[in-house]
């Protein structure tokens, strides 16, 4: 299950890096930018905790419910519900060889890395399309005193592009000038 937290860990880090160093308007209906230099580190073990785990081999799903916590290194993903969908022909969860197609998280999603935090109502990580989407009434990303607010964040891991949408309102960004000096 390495791909799950690799993608989740890159979600916040990728957007934050792009927004801080890319050219992005502070008030717009959506903000898009490129994120060069994305790298995936898959050399650390993953720990998953939840109140309940239900494996549905016939449906190619594993359902984690209640206080779900996924930890890999400095990256933590928390939610109330996480559903892992396996590709047809995958070995499944019980054999440890399941090929993950997508992961859905919902019920207060919180993603933390060593330097960033992202929160949303729900999220989807599509391993086939290499996309990650966080959605909600208010999607908030922070890095230090820098804050990014929208309602839908989409990250394409293959092309290193990210887009923060406002869903009818305006995207809000607050940048701390001191954060750029320390980098």
From TrEMBL:
Residue ranges constituting the Organic solvent tolerance-like N-terminal domain according to the UniProt record: 47-158
Gene Ontology MF terms in the entry: glycolipid transfer activity
GO cellular component, one term: outer membrane-bounded periplasmic space
Superkingdom to which the source organism belongs: Bacteria
Biological process (GO), any one: lipopolysaccharide transport
Matching InterPro entries: LPS_export_LptA, OstA-like_N
Record key words, sorted: Signal
Protein name: Organic solvent tolerance-like N-terminal domain-containing protein
Signal peptide bounds: 1-28
Lineage of source species: Bacteria, Pseudomonadati, Pseudomonadota, Alphaproteobacteria, Hyphomicrobiales
Organism: Pseudohoeflea suaedae
Xref: PANTHER family: LIPOPOLYSACCHARIDE EXPORT SYSTEM PROTEIN LPTA
